[in-house]
Amino acid sequence: MWDLIVNLTQYRILLMLSAARCIQIDNWLTLEEHARLLHYVFEQEAKFVPSDMIDGEVEHRKSLLLLSFPEFSDLIETRIQKIFPDLLVQLGLPSLQLSRFETQLNAHNDGNFFKPHTDNAIYDRGTYKDKAVKSRLLTYVYYFYQEPKAFSGGNLRLYDSTIRDHDYVAADSFQTVEPRNNSIVFFLSRYFHEVLPVSCPSQAFTDSRFTINGWIRCFRSAGGHSTTISNKFASLCQTPSDINEHLPVLRDLSKGLDCVEFGVRGVVSTWAMLAAPCKSLISVDINPCPIEEAKIAATNANIPFEFICASTLDIQINPCDLLFIDTLHTYAQLKHELLVHGNQATQYLVFHDTITFGMAGEDGGLGLMPAIEEFIAANPHWKVHAHYTNNNGLLILRRDR
């Protein structure tokens, strides 16, 4: 996909496509529970095993791991269940139901770390086959240790995400989360993050930075049925709207392509491109849109997808395969969009409302068709591929190869 750049006066500012969000809650356990957990962990020292991850000569992770601690894993999970609806609201997620936890206990001592990664491997397109891991949606990390604290470092670095060369990567910007004793942190498993190196001069196990961390996966809709792209698409095709009759056409065009969508509103055409499935999708709208359900579905389907709240007149995109335009239906708006973005599409340009606002725009002035005709005249490598007159009109231009 593409880096999106927004021009503000004389500056070119990188528009971060996905700002990482997290929630940190202090005093997660009672003082008695915290003390009992520490005592339990100290007694289990011999049962900890190395969690080291090495790829070739590169070491990605170094810590100790305890996989079974049922009394305390149940305690953490029960407490999470009680606040789960509030977590969804604070993280901007739709109403969902959790179905399964994964939990482990880690000890980070002197020199231990975990390099940047995601917890669901959703951006590993080729090699990672564990579907259970890829279904993780929410990560939690509970920090605990004895005081006075005998280590330093071990902060959680949570990266914003951007899109480069058709893939999600960790952006340069990030937030740092301090591992406060008896606090728990929640964030989306798709975020890139790392554990910074720990310094523990004594190297004593009891002086470690301990965590109970895990993942909530297999989210389902509040009605008890899993939200899938295919059944959402089918429902939207059957629900009368200003574009529902064109959704199968848009789906068929988008298959296997890197797509950009200008104009999101009620999130309808978005589902057609995801249903194709497209190779990747960036959706842009000048207003905030209810996009989270689609983002979750795209994540589960391993489709890189981001929503950008910005004016299409202020951004620049790099080449894509298909550009769908359904924004302000006026001559001036579309003429500017085509001037800036039109030739960034390598295969298709798709326009909605070319009948309803074809000759007269929604502002009462000139409509979409004069802007499209002028663009074709100035760029003869673009030809009309199809023009559907039903359901407000859908016009497809195809670029000569």
Task: Describe, in plain words, how this protein is organized in 3D.
By secondary structure, this protein is an alpha+beta fold. Helices cover 23% and strands 35% of the residues. The chain has 9 helices and 27 strands. It has helices at 31-43, 70-90, 131-134, 229-238, 247-254, 269-275, 292-300, 331-341, 368-378, and strands at residues 5-8, 11-14, 22-25, 49-50, 53-55, 58-62, 64-66, 96-97, 100-108, 113-117, 136-144, 152-153, 156-164, 167-177, 183-188, 193-195, 198-199, 209-217, 220-221, 258-262, 280-285, 305-309, 315-316, 320-325, 345-352, 382-388, 394-399. The chain has a 7-stranded antiparallel sheet. It has a 7-stranded mixed sheet with strand order 22-21-20-24-25-27-26. The protein has a 6-stranded antiparallel sheet with strand order 5-6-10-16-13-14, with no helix packed on it. A hairpin with a 5-residue loop joins strand 26 and strand 27 (394-399). Helix 4 (229-238) crosses helix 6. The protein is elongated, with a radius of gyration of 25 Å. 41% of the residues are buried. The model is unreliable at 1-17, 125-129 and 220-226 (pLDDT under 50).
Backbone CA Rg: 25 Å
Uncertain ranges: 1-17, 125-129, 220-226
What does the overall shape look like?
elongated
Main sheet specs: 7 strands, antiparallel
Sheet with the most strands: spatial strand order: 3-15-11-18-9-7-4
Helix content: 10-25%
Number of helices: 9
What do the pLDDT scores average to?
Answer: 87
Q: What distance separates the N and C termini? A: 21 Å
| Class by alpha and beta content | alpha+beta
> How many strand segments?
27
Query: Which band does the percent of strand residues land in?
Result: 25-35%
